[in-house]
């Protein structure tokens, strides 16, 4: 039997002395920002893309709706697998990101103000093309399965240490679903997850607090790649059986975390990733959320990455929010 190599890479798990000192606990960084497509997205979408090509052959047209990073992952997967990719982006996705996706050889369609509208167009394209295969950006078991692969990596890299918490950003829910399913499979069902969103893209937190799925009227956060107006039903379901704490920050805090992280670790990430990192740059947040933590505790932060950033965009955010210094 031929073993199919995944399109993602095994990423480093590195200690952060600076963030550890700031927070009085051991902080570990899972560097998904160095994945080939620039984010964790290639884990799940690489997996589902490979399955699609195995099933449909080289005539397949991989169609994905995306705020940006999922589309870039599918475009990368399409190029690697030698098949066509069509990516539907909302108008809020930057021209910078659109050009990155086009540079991977994908055909780009722009539709709607948020991901939800772009997704309707993607489904219409699939309905009209017999070779088109719908690539769900976050809400599919194969995507969660692919994303879950980071957990056995973390378990092996920690060498017997059980983390006291995992910290991640939440958009549509594909990342947190994969993390929780991976934790359950790894025998870490009691490891809690701190789930960060920006205000204006906080569909998970609102759903969690309401005890039912809530749809936001619109996305108002600058963290556009977190911009799903409704989080996946699976995310809400898992949050009812796994220890999860949602936390919402402001856009300025996410941008500030991007600046601080660049200074501390020399990695440039977008505000969607900065949302999770902001947990480590918010004094007292870990202690308030998990009072039992001490200097021997271990927290793993998922540096989910994101390619919708460069120095010009970061400078625009600096001017907009009056934060950061590089």
Describe the structure.
- The chain has 326 residues and is an alpha/beta fold.
- It contains 14 helices and ten strands.
- The chain has helices at residues 17-23, 41-56, 69-81, 95-103, 115-128, 141-147, 150-158, 174-185, 203-210, 233-239, 251-265, 271-277, 285-289, 311-321; strands at 13-15, 26-31, 61-65, 84-89, 107-110, 132-134, 165-169, 193-198, 244-249, 298-303.
- A six-stranded mixed β-sheet has the order 1-2-10-7-8-9, with helices on both faces. A four-stranded parallel β-sheet has the order 5-4-3-6, with helices on both faces.
- Helix 4 links the parallel strand 4 (84-89) and strand 5.
- It is globular and about 55 Å long.
- The termini are far apart.
- The model has no long low-confidence stretch (mean pLDDT 93).
Record the SSE blueprint.
Blueprint: E1 13-15, H1 17-23, E2 26-31, H2 41-56, E3 61-65, H3 69-81, E4 84-89, H4 95-103, E5 107-110, H5 115-128, E6 132-134, H6 141-147, H7 150-158, E7 165-169, H8 174-185, E8 193-198, H9 203-210, H10 233-239, E9 244-249, H11 251-265, H12 271-277, H13 285-289, E10 298-303, H14 311-321
Parallel strand pairs: 2-10, 3-4, 3-6, 4-5, 7-8, 7-10, 8-9
Antiparallel strand pairs: 1-2
Task: Kindly report the average pLDDT value.
Answer: 93
The proportion of strand residues reads 15-25%
Spatial strand sequence of the major β-sheet:
1-2-10-7-8-9
Question: How much is the radius of gyration in Å?
Answer: 19 Å
- Quote the distance from N terminus to C terminus: 51 Å
Classification by helices and strands? alpha/beta
The helix tally amounts to: 14
Weakly predicted, low-confidence segments: none
Shape: globular
Number of strands: 10
For the report, how would you describe the main beta sheet?
6 strands, mixed
The percent of residues in helical segments reads 40-55%
Helix-strand pattern = EHEHEHEHEHEHHEHEHHEHHHEH
């Amino acid at each position: 039997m031929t073993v199919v190599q995944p399109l993602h890479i095994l990423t480093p798990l590195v200690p952060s002395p600076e963030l550890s000192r700031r927070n009085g606990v051991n902080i570990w960084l899972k560097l998904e920002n160095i994945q080939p497509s620039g984010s964790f997205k290639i884990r799940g979408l690489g997996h589902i893309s490979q399955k699609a090509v195995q099933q449909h052959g080289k005539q397949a047209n991989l169609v994905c709706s995306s705020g940006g990073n999922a589309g870039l992952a599918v475009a990368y997967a399409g190029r690697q697998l030698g098949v066509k990719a069509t990516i539907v982006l909302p108008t809020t996705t930057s021209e910078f990101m659109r050009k990155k996706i086009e540079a991977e050889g994908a055909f780009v369609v722009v539709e709607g103000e948020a991901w939800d509208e772009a997704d309707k167009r993607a489904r219409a394209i699939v309905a009209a093309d017999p070779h088109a295969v719908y690539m769900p950006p976050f809400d599919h078991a194969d995507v969660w399965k692919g994303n879950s692969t980071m957990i056995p990596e973390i378990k092996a890299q920690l060498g017997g240490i059980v983390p006291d918490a995992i910290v991640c950003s939440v958009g549509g829910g594909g990342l947190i679903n994969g993390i929780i399913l991976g934790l359950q499979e790894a025998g870490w069902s009691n490891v809690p997850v701190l789930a960060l969103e920006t205000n204006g893209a906080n569909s998970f937190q609102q759903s969690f607090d309401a005890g039912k799925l809530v749809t936001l009227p619109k996305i108002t956060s600058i963290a556009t790649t977190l911009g799903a107006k409704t989080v996946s039903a699976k995310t809400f379901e898992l949050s009812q059986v796994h220890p999860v704490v949602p936390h919402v920050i402001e856009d300025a805090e996410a941008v500030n975390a991007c600046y601080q992280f660049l200074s501390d670790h020399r990695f440039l990430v977008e505000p969607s990733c900065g949302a999770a990192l902001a947990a480590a740059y918010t004094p007292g947040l870990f202690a308030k959320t998990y009072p039992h933590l001490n200097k021997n505790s271990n927290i793993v932060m998922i540096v989910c990455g994101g390619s919708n950033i460069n120095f010009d965009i970061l400078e625009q955010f600096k001017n907009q929010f009056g934060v950061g210094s590089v």
